[in-house]
Amino acid sequence: MLEITRIPYEEKTILSSLIQLYRYDSSEFDGHSLNPHGVYLYKYFDHQWTESHRYPYLLKVDGEIAGFVLVMKGVPREFVKVSQAEETNVISEFFVMRKFRGKGYGKQAAHTIFRTHPGAWEVRQTKGNQPANRFWNRVIGDITGGAYTEVRLDNESWRGPIQVFEVKE
């Protein structure tokens, strides 16, 4: 059974550990490197608890930690890449541990997050991350009945595909 809960500040070390796994896993696509101390840095880590529009979620399957989702809710137009909505929700980061992939938990988590925060959405993938792109096209196509747009940017603001869609309440 999938459980999705907000990560409280007091448990931020859990997210810190998961970000290391996520950055390692995605480094083949985004080129992130370890710092001299052997750690992947995440620029917006502390922002998850200091900015009111950020929502860090922990995923658990049958009580076992399975991943995380970082959401930005109601982002103004000047901070999104493609959406023309006044405010847009954005999946900042989405990670399901390999053990739990291919079992429907990622799709279930994404649908729950989208329904928790209805409205306009943007979901971005790093250029070259074909597995993530296939996943998001399936998941977003399912929740929207195919009513979404995928745009591919290749400029200084973003390099890769972006799905833009709306989830009704």
UniProtKB/TrEMBL annotation:
Keyword annotations: Acyltransferase, Transferase
Entries under InterPro entries matching the protein: Acyl_CoA_acyltransferase, GNAT_dom
Pfam families linked: Acetyltransf_1 (PF00583)
Q: Which GO terms describe its molecular function?
A: acyltransferase activity, transferring groups other than amino-acyl groups
Enzyme class at the top of the EC tree: transferase
Q: What is its EC number?
A: 2.3.1.-
Q: Residues in domain N-acetyltransferase?
A: 7-169
Protein name, as recorded: GNAT family N-acetyltransferase
Taxonomic source organism: Paenibacillus aurantius
